[in-house]
Amino acid sequence: MRLYSWNVNGVRSVINKGLLQKFIKAHKPDVLCLQETKAERGQIEIDLPEYHEYWNSAVKKGYSGTALFSKQEPLSVVNGFPKPFAKRFKFADELERDSSEEGRVITAEFPKLYVVTVYTPNAKDDLSRLALRHEHWDPAFLAYCRQLQKKKPVVFCGDLNVAHTELDLANPKPNRGKKGFTAEERAGFQHFIDAGFLDTFRLFEPDGGHYTWWSRFANSRARNVGWRIDYFLVSGSLRKAVKAAQIHADVMGSDHCPISLTLSV
Q1: Residue 194 catalytic?
Q2: Annotated active-site residue in 159, 168, 199, 230
């Protein structure tokens, strides 16, 4: 099973340029998860007869959004956090707004596992959304994945908007305490690791210098001055099924590049 994840930063642009179609033809994903689609299905002209398509678009036009394409029809698909789950939290309204109204989560159930695509809220340059993320989003998303895991293993992927360790960004010292590399965001990621989820890329590559996002300024991508903020994490029970995890930095079209995971399931 070949799974891919890509923050396209505007799906209409990569489709109109033919880049998404070229990518799918070259890589032939079994499941493709997109983040920051910034569009509704009706705004897009794309013919993918091999795939079942699922969209969770933001209420706000041209903002956020996720999509999932699968060759195999899922058993079920849920957009956002289910209301019964969100109601467990005192900040249920905020969770429902972020996961559903901002189109940040899609969960697809397959016979042997769940696949979740997520576009985690950005803390913002002034850290105005850091408290929302640290106190609300990260704990709830972890609880949600653990709830799913009670039924079957979980694969979740997407733009998590955090560099976990100093190996995950080119310039850690000047960025410490800034969005994407605050102690709170890094702790939120570490809680997934402590709960038994595996950062699949790190199973194969222990060293730095591998990034998934680059600023559009100062020729950052050509100089490989980037951040690794896009991930595939899996339940620990899937460890033996993980055969490969890769970053496809050669694929252009967004300020992020795609990542992939190969599972023997």
Answers
A1: no
A2: 159
| Contact between 149 and 139 (Cβ < 8 Å) | no
Residue 66 bridge partners (DSSP):
35, 56
Which residue range forms the structural domain that includes residue 22? 2-263
- Which CATH number covers residue 237? 3.60.10.10
Angstrom distance (rounded) from CA 164 to CA 182: 10
| Higher per-residue pLDDT: 265 or 248 | 248
Out of 4, 51, 54, 119, the active site residue is 119
pLDDT of residue 96: 66
State the Cα–Cα distance between residues 166 and 179, nearest whole angstrom: 14
In this model, does residue 156 exceed pLDDT 80?
Answer: yes
Q: What pLDDT score was predicted for residue 45?
A: 85
Q: Are 3 and 265 in contact (CB under 8 A)?
A: no
CA dist 33 and 16 (Å) reads 18
How far from the centroid of its chain's Cα atoms is residue 171's Cα?
A: 22
What is the tally of structural domains in the chain? 1
Q: How far apart are CA 168 and CA 230, in angstroms?
A: 10
The tens digit of pLDDT for each residue in 94-129 reads: 766 666 689 999 999 999 999 999 999 999 999 998
